[in-house]
Amino acid sequence: MANGVPAAAGQQSVPRRVISFITRWTTATNHKDIGTLYLCTALLNLFVGGTLALCIRAELFVPGLQFVEPNFFNTLTTMHGLIMLFGFIMPVAVGFANWLIPMMIGAPDMALPRLNNMSFWLLPSATIMLISTLFMDGGAPNFGWTMYAPLSTTYGPPSTDYMIFAVHMLGLSSIMGSINIITTIFTMRAPGMTWMKLPVFVWTWLVTAFLLIGIMPVLAGAVTMMLFDRNFGTSFFDAAGGGDPLLFQHIFWFFGHPEVYVLALPAFGIISQVIPTFSRKPLFGYRTMVAATILIGILSYIVWAHHMFTSGMPYGAQLYFMLATMLIAVPTGMKVFNWITTMFRGSISFETPMLFSIAFVFMFTFAGCTGVMLAVAPADFQYHDSYFVVAHFHYVLVNGLTFAFIAGAYYWYPKFWGRMYNERLGKWHFWLSTISVNVLFFPQHFLGLAGMPRRIPDYALQFVDFNFISSCGAFVFGFSQLIFVYNMITSRRRGEPASDRVWEGAEGLEWTLSSPPPHHSFQTPPKVD
Amino acid sequence: MVGLFRLLGACLLLSPALVNAQINMPRGVTPVSQDIYGLHMYVIWIVVGIMAVVYGVIIFSLIRHRKSKGAVAATFSKNNLLELMWTIVPLIIITAIAIPSIRVLIEMDDYDAADLTVKITGHQWKWQYEYLDQGVGFFSTLSTPIEEVIGVEEKNEFYLLEVDEPLVLPTDRKVRFVVTSNDVIHSWWVPELGIKRDAVPGYVYEAWARIQEPGIYRGQCAELCGVNHGFMPIVVKAVPPAEYDKWIAERASAAKTAQGSRSDLTLPEAMKRGAALYDQHCGACHKYDGSGMPPTFPSLRDSSITTGSDINRHIDVVMNGVPNTAMQAFAPQLDDEELAAIITYERNAWEHDTGDLVQPSQIQARRQ
User: Cα distance from B306 to chain A (closest Cα, Å)?
Assistant: First the structure.
């Protein structure tokens, strides 16, 4: 928080200091300040969502109902999903975008700083509204984060309307953020920073921003129709009134599938920055990396109904969605192969960010393989809505993307704050997380194949062993993250001062700035050759 | 704290009941389930192969090309042939996966020439089975007692996977299922039959099975459908065709005779039946003590409907439900005697003590 604080802050009285602290952050327009706000909010939400997850795993430790009632269990799964997606993974990606994009393209700030402020402050408002539903009469939304009608419309608790409003605000926030990012990348690049010189992280965010602009209005439409069905007597999704419950699923997944890549692409971008640095070798296949990013973006729009194989679709539609889904394996595979070839014949060292990135490549590849299995429509009739799916998407989102964002956090920490994090604690964090996260999610594949449906508060006796193991992993994983927070907080003051370049193999404009970087990143545009 | 004691208690109760955990998809007993299993294993071996190559190269690099071993970084950053290759090779692999998948998909879609048709309707939280050609139909609900769920009794072998009345099907005959729902979306899933079909209100979704071995096959609802989603299992009892024919004939004639017989209830009789039926059909939402989960599931205690003088209002709500709420219509699900018993129970339980006794004839009168 060294940047932009008035020099006299130290001498002010306590209430004045509080007021100036509040005004500084609420009126922040600087891209680094807003990036910090995004990252801190995301971290906070990670722990809120994580606490809910631990409640779920506590209930599933052994069969029988021990801690929570079935209805509250359903609100736990719903709120866990919503908070993790909208409150953690999306904001953490936007936080990195805000911090890094101006520095990477040689700009002083984002193109639209005030819009930036507004798109951030919508986020905590929406998250607070979302979390407040937990304390409302009738309980929080209890129909799963997918909000399938008519469970969410006719049968939803009254708090559903608050959730809908929160989703509207989150959508607005994402759309404004995306417009800002697109405008920045198009108009604020330093002279000589041509499209094919953009760092991959910037490319992935450009595609992500376009995806967000395409899908967020669709989600807003879906929840608006829900709102009308609930309150104004329409029957968009009510079969009895001539509506169609499957329409909701089509609209939802038209948002929901690209959303997966909205979350994944920025993580791919981070990995594409980290791996070359610690392999001391340029990124292999930059052009195919960019092409694959764009291709994933396009394909993600046309595969949504693979979430609905068992919902009821004509044979031809099943065939099409199966084949289109399998095609996504091609550009995703290109990325994985490029990362591996970047490491191949490099000079690899194992600092914490690299460890997390390598773990990402391992576990994300695994998640991709189970993804190919799920794409096989006939087999999906067995996998769908079972713990196999739960295991698959947690391997994507936790073992994959969350690991990538943690890698990013360690990688740019010295650049952001001018001090090194504690490497020893970082390694402890890595090994504890990597082992426990696999103990947590790997057995869930077995549970799903053996027939355990998802979102159940209690289970039959053949699922006892693996649920027990999985819950043990969950608690170790959850508490290991406290090491990360401790490391981040204490190193701000106690860490070794960082050099400008920080890492021996680091390439890119952000490393030419001081650590921490000046308030307005590049006052005069750098020259890019 | 109470939770913690229950947890410890459950651990103790459980230890003798531990069964060998299954780690793979069941092979199943129908042509479709076996083909799905074959496809599943085929794709698993392909992805294991991919992972072996990918992980092999990474591990090789991590060992050989590390800085601490003095590795010097190469400078190459592109290779057109290599990049083209890993676009083409995955395309070939997915084609190899797609072709057998299409074949199984075609097989699954063949609903013609079925020997019998069973209509499956999902309700919150039970399954209704109707043998359309024979006019036989019944509901199938969880039969695990609540005491096992909350951990005061030891859990039996088929905990949460047992029902009062299983779906009886013949082996070696082609059974066609039509699946739909009465309220929210459910999903009828029996892994060993290779069938999972979402039950969507307003839609009828087909599936078929030709069961090859007699036996009992268990499954669960797979789509989140509200509070008791985890408590609506499916049990399929497959019997040889002769035995099935005998069973269905008995059920069909029993269904005919049951229609005439209707006798009056006494209060203690009605209360006893009503209590059991209430727990089975109403207790999940309105709670076993009638307190409900307001506002979605109102409390029945001291409510004007359950204690007011207008009994017909009470009867109408139970029989026809309340539109646009979670209260479903029970008239099509329960017979006159059952409805009378439940309503009598609600009017006299929880210290309501209205003394009202509703007779099956009253219900029948309001059915028109």
Answer: 21
Say whether residue A323 is in contact with chain B using an 8 A CB cutoff.
Answer: yes
SS (H, E, C) chain B: CHHHHHHHHHHHHHHHHCCCCCCCCCCCCCHHHHHHHHHHHHHHHHHHHHHHHHHHHHHHHHHHCEHHHCCCCCCCCCCHHHHHHHHHHHHHHHHHHHHHHHHHHHHHCCCCCCCEEEEEEEECCEEEEEECCCCEEEEECECCCHHHHCCCCCCCCCCCCCECCCEEEECCCEEEEEEEECCCCEEEEEHHHCEEEEECECCCEEEEEECCCCEEEEEEECCCCCCCHHHCEEEEEEECHHHHHHHHHHHHHHHHHHCCCCCCCCHHHHHHHHHHHHHHHCHHHHCCCCCCECCCECCCCCCHHHHCCCHHHHHHHHHHCCCCCCCCCCCCCCCHHHHHHHHHHHHHCCCCCCCCCCCHHHHHHHHC
Domain boundaries, chain A: 34-512
- Write out chain A residues lying below 8 Å of B198, CB-based: 310-312
Using CB atoms, pick whichever of A143, A327, A347 lies closest to residue B72: A347
Distance to chain B for A144, nearest Cα, Å: 7
**Is B285:B292 a contact under the CB 8 Å cutoff?**
yes
The CA distances from residue B159 to A31, A69, B14, B264, B283, in Å, are: 56, 18, 11, 36, 19
B10 near A CB under 8 A? yes
pLDDT tens readout for residues A167-214: 999 999 999 999 999 999 999 999 999 999 999 999 999 999 999 999
pLDDT tens per residue across span B318-366: 888 887 677 888 888 888 888 888 888 988 888 888 888 888 888 888 8
Instruction: Judge whether A527 counts as a catalytic residue.
Output: no
The end-to-end CA distance of chain A, in Å, is 33
A4 touches chain B (CB under 8 A): no
What 3-state class would DSSP assign to A17? helix
Distances (CA, A) of B57 to A360, A364, B49, B121: 15, 15, 13, 52
Q: Which CATH architecture has domain A34-512?
A: Up-down Bundle (1.20)
Task: Please tell me the distance in Å from B149's CA to the nearest CA on chain A.
Answer: 5
Residue-range domains of chain B with CATH: 31-67+74-108 (1.10.287.90), 116-258 (2.60.40.420), 267-367 (1.10.760.10)
ipTM of the shown complex: 0.91
Which residues of chain A neighbour B231 with C-beta distances below 8 Å? 70, 458
Comparing CB atoms, the residue among A286, A329, A449 nearest residue B90 is: A329
Write the DSSP symbol of residue A195: G
Active site residue A286: no
Beta bridge partners of B297: B293
Per-residue pLDDT, B259? 57
Rounded Cα distance, B200 and B187, in Å = 8
Q: Nearest residue on chain B to A74, judged by CA atoms?
A: B227
- Give me the residue from B66, B149, B205 closest to A312, CB to CB: B205
- Inspect the interface and report whether the beta carbons of A154 and B324 lie closer than 8 Å: yes
The count of residues in chain A is 529
The amino acid at residue A172 is L
